[in-house]
Write a structure and sequence with these properties.
Number of helices: 15
Shape: globular
Structural class: alpha/beta
Radius of gyration: 22 Å
Distance between the termini: 27 Å
Bound molecules: beta-L-rhamnopyranose, manganese (II) ion
Strand content: 5-15%
């Protein structure tokens, strides 16, 4: 993505943008400080979401998908060049094995990218793998299977160290499909034992994220099924272990913003996987189904992080975890990042002092008005200004289409391509 193309695009849109930006700036205090925070806020892109996702009923491959890790890094570099908000990539191993870490790191650096959390995969069997994960990994009744899963996680940490990553995300599909299949207590203990061994292999400055999920692929029980179980593991493991919240991993109507608030209060919220969903782990574009919930979550994040003097941009791991069945993955990711930034900006303009006064006075109506006032404010010019100052495009999606990026990728990589990942 040549710089002049972004500049040309911005040039055409500047006059209109300036008008919109002045309008919002005159209506909120500290527009400058908010723009600064928006500039700093980066969201990591998952390496497994750059191709078309499938469901168990099929997969309709898009064209020009990245065929290897280098091309995936180029794709994330492209997103970042457009929005200046996606300065990190999160790798899933073994879907993406960085065989030559030095050159992979150099390529990422060329695109202004760093490596976010590395992810282990003990939910699928790989070719040449000795033992099967059919009945779980860390919870497995057979010690050899557990050891294999532990070894894999330690291997993933090793890759992460080489790339300059500083966190490991462990998501386990362990659980059971039928009553009686599993002894819950034993499964928990075995899993804890395995996690402890992985934890012991973490370098000092590393964090470990224990991600929970309510159901799927197991449908009766999940061994890390909710935030309570994840918090139990994280607490027993020690100060380097945290809970990771994936928005699509809750039962219907769960109050995710409350979960987030309490995990933060306990100092045990570590990372986030953003997506949206209607039913379960739908992995839809962030903010596409329930943008108000996203805003409420950010409202708690900002409130809770400020209460603990945390740095919004760096003290939690912000990642997208999505799958795109019908959209161009790059367009979907651009939309997701934009939705996250909008929700973040909205939460920054909440009149927090007035909210506290309303809460203390049991003034329910005013409390609601304060939140909804922020939510109903069009903050897009703030987000666009932050992008402009950082050298990104005023309208990333529009520029992506004008420049026919996908068409060019198809020319380069071919029409029939399948990326590794979901
Ligand atoms: C899981 C979970 C993990 C992700 C895998 C691919 O449902 O969200 O974070 O690594 O999917
Ligand atoms: Mn996830
Ligand atoms: Mn998921």
């Amino acid at each position: 993505m040549e710089k002049y193309k972004v500049e040309e695009h911005n040039h055409q849109l500047t006059a209109e943008h300036k008008k919109n930006f002045e309008f919002i700036s005159s209506r909120i205090p500290d527009a400058k400080a908010i723009v600064q925070k928006l500039q700093e806020f980066q969201i990591a892109i998952p390496s497994w979401a750059l191709g078309t996702g499938g469901t168990r009923f099929g997969r309709f491959s898009g064209g020009g998908e990245p065929g290897n890790l280098e091309e995936k890094i180029e794709d994330v570099g492209l997103i970042h060049a457009l929005n200046k908000s996606s300065g990190a990539i999160s790798l899933h191993i073994p879907w993406d094995i960085p065989n030559n870490a030095q050159s992979i790191k150099a390529l990422a650096a060329q695109h202004g990218l760093r490596f976010d959390a590395v992810n282990s995969n003990t939910f699928q069997d790989q070719q040449q793998q000795q033992h099967s994960y059919k009945f779980g990994s860390l919870q497995h009744v057979d010690k050899r299977v557990r050891q294999q899963a532990i070894d894999h996680n330690i291997e993933v940490i090793r890759h992460g160290i080489e790339l300059g990553s500083d966190s490991l995300t462990v998501w386990l599909s362990d659980g059971s499909c039928f009553p009686g299949q599993l002894n819950f207590r034993k499964a928990f203990q075995r899993t804890l034992e395995g996690l402890k061994q992985i934890y012991a292999a973490l370098p000092d400055n590393w964090k470990m994220f224990v991600e929970y999920k309510a159901f799927e692929p197991n449908f009766y029980s999940m061994t890390v099924g909710d935030w309570g179980q994840s918090l139990l593991y994280a607490t027993k493991l020690g100060p380097k272990a945290f809970t990771l919240v994936d928005l699509g991993h809750h039962l219907a109507n769960a109050n995710i913003e409350q979960i987030v608030a309490l995990l933060l209060e306990e100092g045990k919220l570590g990372g986030f996987h953003f997506n949206d969903s209607k039913y379960g782990d739908d992995d839809l574009t962030v903010g596409s189904i329930n943008p108000y919930q996203l805003f409420l979550i950010f409202n708690e994040l900002v409130e809770g992080m400020d209460a603990r003097n945390m740095n919004h941009a760096t003290d939690l791991a912000w990642m997208i975890d999505a799958s795109h069945n019908v959209k161009d993955p790059l367009e979907d990711l651009l939309q997701s990042v934009e939705a996250i930034k909008i929700a973040y900006a909205q939460s920054l303009i909440v009149d927090k002092k007035a909210l506290v006064i309303a809460q203390e006075a049991n003034d329910v109506v005013t409390a609601q008005e304060i939140l909804q006032h922020a939510y109903r404010t069009d903050v897009r010019p703030l987000v666009a200004e932050a992008r402009l100052l950082a050298g990104g495009a005023l309208q990333p999606l529009q520029l992506f289409r004008t420049l026919k990026v996908r068409e060019n990728l198809i020319k380069e990589r071919g029409l029939k391509t399948v990326a590794t990942g979901l």
